[in-house]
């Protein structure tokens, strides 16, 4: 069973997380595991390093979201829009990503082991040699671009 959050609660959590990221006093890492965010607009929100394990972002707009280093293990993100999202070093192991849009997303160092990615779109998504893909998944075949370390 997923946990529902009120808008006011999310605003508070985002504010505390922002303080956490900048090292301000009173900052707290966002703990949203098990949350239900069906259809929610999280575009351009900074949740770097947040715990979002086993959350539901089905049909959510998360364009431009910063989830660098976030824990999204076993999250249900069916048909979510990750266009231009920063997912560097995020843990998305075992996530349900059917029909997701990863257009221009940054997947460098992301763990996608065991993720279900049927019908996901990866046009211009960036990945590197540290990105972990599901077995037998070919990122080039779905439009992702390998970025070599410089």
Describe the overall structure.
There is one protein chain. The chain has 150 residues and is mostly loops. It has a single domain, classed as 3 Solenoid (Pectate Lyase C-like), CATH 2.160.20. Helices cover 11% and strands 3% of the residues. The protein is built from one helix and two strands. Strands 1-2 form a two-stranded parallel sheet. The model has no long low-confidence stretch (mean pLDDT 94).
Distance between the termini: 45 Å
The helix/strand series, from N terminus to C terminus, equals HEE
Radius of gyration: 15 Å
Q: What is the domain total for the residues?
A: 1
* Protein structure class: little secondary structure
Largest sheet: 2 strands, parallel
CATH topology: Pectate Lyase C-like
| Average of per-residue pLDDT values | 94
Which CATH class is shown? Mainly Beta
The H-level CATH homologous superfamily, spelled out, is E3 ubiquitin-protein ligase SopA
Query: Which architecture would the CATH scheme give at its second level?
Result: 3 Solenoid
Which parts are unreliable, with pLDDT below 50 for 5 consecutive residues or more?
none
- How big a fraction of the residues is strand? under 5%
- Count of individual helical segments: 1
Number of strands: 2
For the biggest β-sheet, the strand order reads: 1-2
Query: Shape from CA axes?
Result: globular
Summarize this entry quickly:
Helices cover 11% and strands 3% of the residues. The protein is mostly loops and 150 residues long. A two-stranded parallel sheet has the order 1-2.
């Amino acid at each position: 069973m997923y946990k529902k959050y009120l808008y006011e609660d999310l605003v508070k959590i985002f504010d505390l997380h922002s303080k956490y990221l900048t090292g301000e006093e009173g900052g707290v890492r966002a703990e949203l595991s098990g949350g239900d965010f069906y259809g929610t607009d999280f575009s351009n929100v900074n949740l770097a390093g947040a715990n979002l394990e086993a959350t539901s972002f089905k049909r959510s707009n998360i364009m431009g979201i910063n989830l660098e280093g976030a824990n999204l293990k076993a999250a249900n993100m069916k048909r979510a829009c990750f266009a231009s999202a920063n997912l560097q070093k995020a843990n998305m192991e075992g996530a349900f990503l059917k029909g997701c849009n990863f257009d221009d997303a940054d997947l460098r160092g992301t763990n996608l082991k065991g993720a279900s990615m049927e019908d996901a779109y990866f046009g211009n998504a960036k990945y590197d040699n540290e990105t972990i893909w599901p077995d037998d998944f070919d990122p080039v075949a779905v439009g992702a671009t390998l970025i070599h370390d410089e």
